[in-house]
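[09:14] KT: can someone run the structure on this one? pasting the chain below
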Amino acid sequence: MAREARTLWITGAGSGMGRAAALAAARDGRPVALSGRRPEKLEEVAEEVRTLGGAALAVPLDVTDRAAVRSAAARIEEELGGLGALVLSAGLNAPRRYWRDQDLDEFAAITDTNLLGPVSVIDAVLPRMRERGGGTIVLISSYSAWRFSPDAGTAYSATKTALGPLTAMLNAQESRYGIRACHLCPGDVDSDFLDRRPQVPGPQERAVMLSPEDVGRAVAFVLASPPHVIIDELVISPAKPGP
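[09:31] RB: done, C-alpha cells below
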C-alpha cells in the first residue's frame, strides 16, 4: 500500500511557469517547496502561496550543484514531509543560438541546467519515492523538444529533446514502484524567459502566446491524474490568431 506524500518540489519556482505551478498546487492543498537561484523571488512566491492558505518553503538552489541538490531534498523532507511530486521548471538558454556564434562554455552551462539539473534532482528523490511506493515527476520541456524548431538554439534544442527519452526511461523502469513521469512541452509562453531571445518579442507577439497560468493548469492536471494513469507526454500550444 502506497503511503501518500503530498509535498511538491518545484525548481525554477521564482517566476513564470514554476511560479504558476506553485500557485496551482497551493490551491489543491499541496505543501510546496520552492527552489531557484533568486532567494528574493522565491520568498515572494512563498508569500503568495501562504496567502492562498498553503504551506511553502523557499529553498534557494542552483540545480547544477549536486551536493546542494541532495541537501535541499533532505531539508524539504524534514520540514515539509514526504516528497510526492516534482516539477522541474528550471531552464536556461542564450541569445547566441547558432553554430556560427555559439560559445562552448555557454553550451555546457545550458546542458548542466536543462539536462543534468533535472537528472540530479530526480536522482536525489527517487529512492524515497520508491520506498513510499509512489511519486509524480513533471519535466517542463519545450515545444521545440516535440517538433524541431531551428530558432530555439543548438544547446537548448538538444537538451530539451533529451528530456523525452529520459521521461520514457523513468516510466519504463520506475512505474513498477508507482512512479510516473510526464514530458510537458509548452509552446511559446509569455514569461521573462523570452528576454533571452536574440530578438525579444513585443507586446503584440506576447498577447497571443500561452500564459504561465496555462502551463500551471496543465501541471495541475498531470498531478491530479489517478495514480494508475501515466501521461507520458503532454503538448500544449497557443491557438493561431484569427485574421
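[09:33] KT: thanks! The chain has a mean pLDDT of 93.
[09:34] RB: yep, looked fine to me
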